[in-house]
Amino acid sequence: MSESKLAGQFFDAAIGLLERVRDEEAPRIAEAGTLIADAVAAGNRLFAFGAGHSSLPAQDVVYRAGGLALMNFLAVPGTAGVDVMPATLGSALERVDGLAGAVLDSSPASDGDVLVIISLSGRNALPVEMAMNARAIGLKVIGVTSVAYATGTRSRHVSGTFLKDHCDVVLDSKIAVGDAELSVDGIDAPFAPASTVVTSAIMQAVMATAAGELAARGLEPPLLRSGNVDGGHEWNGRVMQEYGDRIFFRH
């Protein structure tokens, strides 16, 4: 099989997943966007969390041109980014009980804020505990996960539950267990994961919904502009100043 044909198959698979999410998750994407708009309008804060490669879609909506300035990355040291050494440490930390609670206790997140938790499998202790503890202190939790893992795998949290069981809104990425869209003769392992493409699109769809909801209420969405466009730095400086008490990534 030619390499170009495999590339086309991957694009087709990713497009198919995006279409499914667009059509099947639309009501919940709208609900998630409304939750975020409610928090912005009420003076609350926004946070996003993900571990391992699930941290990539979370980071994609933080300090992002065209994105909401109020979205903060809730960092768990050692779990985000491929620069963690050794790389296997991040995977191990996702299974540590108590870590999420310690992070939340030392974070600025509080009652009324919104936390988006991204976890493809939703089975590890860290995202499950993060959702449980966040709701216990009054946060609204939006979970972005593959619901298929809840029936195709077993939970690694002591409760036996998954991320999806502890959220106010669940957005299903539709990714199959194993996160690999292609398999061919002569290659023993399946390959070509699409979870980052799909989950990032879900996150941007939610942010767009929130911005539109705020505008519909007569409120200016606190959006950032590109620093590579004339006037962008000045615009962003004004937004940072106006909302400085709800932005934590600049300190």
From TrEMBL:
Q: What InterPro entries has UniProt attached to this entry?
A: RpiR-like_SIS, SIS_dom, SIS_dom_sf, SIS_GmhA/DiaA_subfam, UPF0309
Tell me the domain of life. Bacteria
Give all residue intervals belonging to the SIS domain.
36-221
Q: Which residues form a coiled coil?
A: none
Which PROSITE patterns does the entry link to?
A: SIS
SUPFAM superfamilies tied to this protein: SIS domain
Which CDD domains does this one have? Answer: SIS_RpiR
Please name the NCBIfam families in this protein's record.
PRK02947.1
Tell me which family the UniProt entry assigns to this protein: Belongs to the UPF0309 family.
Q: What is this protein called?
A: UPF0309 protein Scinn_63110
The organism that produces this protein has a lineage beginning with:
Bacteria, Bacillati, Actinomycetota, Actinomycetes, Kitasatosporales
